[in-house]
Amino acid sequence: MPPDATAAPAAGRTVPFRGGGFAPRLHRGAALVAFAALIAAWQAAASLKLVNALFLPSPLQIAASLYAMAATGELFLHVAASLRRILLGWAFGTAAGLGVGFAIGLFGLVRSIGLPLVSALFPIPKIALLPLFILWFGIGEPSKVATIALGVFFPTAIAAFGAVDNVPKSLIRMAQSFGLPPFDIVRKVVLPGALPGILSGFRISASIALILVVAAEMINAQTGIGALVLLAGSLMQTDQLLAGVVVLSVLGLVISFVLGRLERRLLRWR
């Protein structure tokens, strides 16, 4: 039988490479354009009186409020107080969560006891425990830091446990076959393999810390973004309220940027 005539052109055609996988590329200007378009539409709606300024102040009003608070130093006082609470609570919660998560991932007895406890306590709203922490630690800073630390602890522990558990067992067996001590296996095999998952957990725990600090500061706090938002809302100063929301959004972007730089620095080997 003569060869198929249609097969000849196909045989000489170059087949495109299809093994690139999913590799989304960042379009750096896209976010700025989207933000600019959103703010312009918001300002246009406010200028045309399509929305009530009491219910939704314009971006220019919010910017003027931010400038006024920055000029008096009030804004920096609130931001410094919130950052101090976030850093302390996040540091304590992360240290405890990493220790417990690694222990659950590495030791069978700890996993048998710790995993059910973490799974049972994780869904409890941490801000609901703030009155209890006030009874234990007083009404000052320790109760607020403890609330943030507890909220950070659980996602960090779960992320660390999952990351350790997902390290390929073949790599661990290979290290054991070469006679590496258990500590070296954890340091040279388990920790690098679990690091991407742990750093992803950091993004979640940092966001939770930001949410909890606002909630904690709304209960008997004189300074902090939460106290600023609560006071502005009670006085119907919606421009200052949304100024506080803008500051929280900027803090979230800064935290995300710092964690992104940390990921790129620590995960160069990938």
Describe this structure in words.
This protein has helices at residues 7-12, 28-47, 59-72, 74-106, 108-121, 130-137, 141-165, 169-177, 182-217, 225-234, 238-266. With 270 residues, the protein is an all-alpha fold. It is flat, with a radius of gyration of 26 Å.
Write the layout of secondary structure elements.
Elements: H1 7-12, H2 28-47, H3 59-72, H4 74-106, H5 108-121, H6 130-137, H7 141-165, H8 169-177, H9 182-217, H10 225-234, H11 238-266
Produce a short descriptive summary.
The protein is mostly helical. Helices cover 76% and strands 0% of the residues.
Radius of gyration: 26 Å
End-to-end CA span: 53 Å
> Can you tell me the residue ranges where pLDDT is under 50 for at least 5 consecutive residues?
none
What is the helix fraction of residues, given as a range? over 70%
Which structural class do the helices and strands define? mainly alpha
Q: How many distinct domains?
A: 1
CATH superfamily: MetI-like
* Rounded average pLDDT: 85
> Do you know the CATH topology?
MetI-like fold
**Bulk shape:** flat
Strand % is: under 5%
**Total number of strands:** 0
Count every helix, treating DSSP H or I runs of 4 or more residues as helices.
11
